[in-house]
Design brief:
216 residues; alpha/beta; TIM Barrel; 9-stranded mixed β-sheet; 31% helix; globular
């Protein structure tokens, strides 16, 4: 099944133009089987997620995108923000306590050089990125980000290869045009956040570039 692991809605994500209902309806229209609501440093209330899922008869999974000192991290399994989560090792501790999972979002950011003069420069940038201390705690890296340029996602894909890590895909949707560009395909059926975490840890998934946003 196809799940978008990385989306944002208003007003919980300050930079999103998407209403939650609109996100779900258009995600369904593109053929996605479910979404994760991963607002910036903000948790959905479990009862609100459940109500949203019931109203649309659609898989809606709570998540969060946390801004850490080592980059943005998608976290699954948490239900509240604790001071200190901006440090990746402390975030990892809380994730471990709830048997959750972490994914490094758009790892190309602040890592891929804007101007590449030689293959050596590119390889050195990959090597620097691979030393990010947060990645040791992650189940995967986001290999395809729906708002990333082709060369940026290629950097993330190369980083996955270098580190021998699995890659996911998420639209990082902030507007209608972002929805349906990519998703993560899971081998097994997922019906809740616990099953999502289990499949992420087991590595039974792949990043898929759908490149089929619906018209606005």
């Amino acid at each position: 099944m196809l799940i978008d692991l990385h989306t944002h809605t208003k007003p919980l994500s300050w930079d999103s133009y998407l209403e939650p209902d609109d996100l779900i309806e258009r995600s369904r229209a593109t053929g996605l089987d479910g979404i994760c609501l991963s607002e910036h440093d903000y948790f959905w209330k479990p009862e609100d997620v459940a109500e949203l899922a019931k109203r649309h008869d659609y898989l809606v999974i709570p998540a969060i995108e946390i801004n850490t000192d080592d980059g943005h991290i998608l976290a699954y399994g948490l239900d509240k923000y604790v001071y200190g989560m901006h440090r990746s090792h402390e975030l990892a501790h809380h994730i471990e306590e709830v048997n959750g999972a972490m994914i490094a979002a758009h790892p190309y950011r602040r890592q891929m050089p804007w101007y590449i003069e030689s293959d050596l420069d590119y390889e050195e940038a990959l090597a620097r990125a691979s030393r990010n201390p947060a990645y040791r705690y992650c189940a995967a890296l986001e290999a395809i980000n729906g708002r990333g340029a082709a060369k940026e996602n290629e950097f993330s894909r190369r980083l996955c290869e270098m580190m021998d890590m699995r890659g996911t895909a998420g639209s990082d949707a902030h507007a209608r045009v972002d929805i349906g560009r990519c998703a993560t395909r899971f081998e097994r059926k997922i019906s809740n956040v616990e099953e999502l975490i289990e499949e992420l840890k087991a590595g039974r998934f792949e990043a898929v570039d759908l490149d089929m946003p619906v018209a606005v």
